[in-house]
Amino acid sequence: MRVSKAQAQANREHIVETASELFRERGFDGVGVADLMAAAGFTHGGFYKHFGSKADLMAEASANSLGRSLATAETLDVKGFIDLYVSREHRDGRGDGCTMAALCGDAARQPDELKATFADGIERTLQTLGAKYPTDTEAAPDAARLKMIGLLAQAVGAVMLSRACPDDSALADEILAVCHAQMLASLPLVSEDEAEQSE
């Protein structure tokens, strides 16, 4: 039975969404094509009607989930981003959390095409949040960007380190709490008292 173009496109989008979640939960190497297609509700053989290779799907799924993370970042100020990102909820939500925290380690071992997808997502996130970074009028033009590179690296690193610890580990929570407080305290318009109260 032939599938309409609209249905074929909807099926493809569903596969990309499923892959995006599974890759964030298990890593790129932790998900095979057969498992992925079964999770999406399709047969293994249907995969190559939509994608040339698993690498193609990895890039598309990563671009999709990085775009979703960016859409969330667009709705937040820098403090709101820190509060949401460096949290136990985000740490525990691997499948629906940020692709950078879930897959940057995996992406580092992938071909340049996939790395370029991550670089684009990182750059767009830096631009979005950098435009919202609170700086005074005398700050250098690139001051907000430089601060956001440091904050984004600390946020991603904090979640990655916390996830590397056992789920009930006191260290996992301590990493998040310390980094969260330090990041808030580094914002020029957030006092140390506010940073401590938000822990």
From TrEMBL:
Gene3D superfamilies the record matches: Homeodomain-like (1.10.10.60), Tetracycline Repressor, domain 2 (1.10.357.10)
Location of the DNA-binding region in this protein: 32-51
Key words of the record: DNA-binding, Transcription, Transcription regulation
PROSITE patterns referenced in this protein's UniProt entry, alphabetically: HTH_TETR_2 (PS50977)
InterPro entries named in the record: Homeodomain-like_sf, HTH_TetR, Tet_transcr_reg_TetR-rel_C_sf
Residue ranges of domain HTH tetR-type in the record: 9-69
Keyword Nuclease: no
UniProt name for this protein: TetR/AcrR family transcriptional regulator
Organism field: Pseudomonas retamae
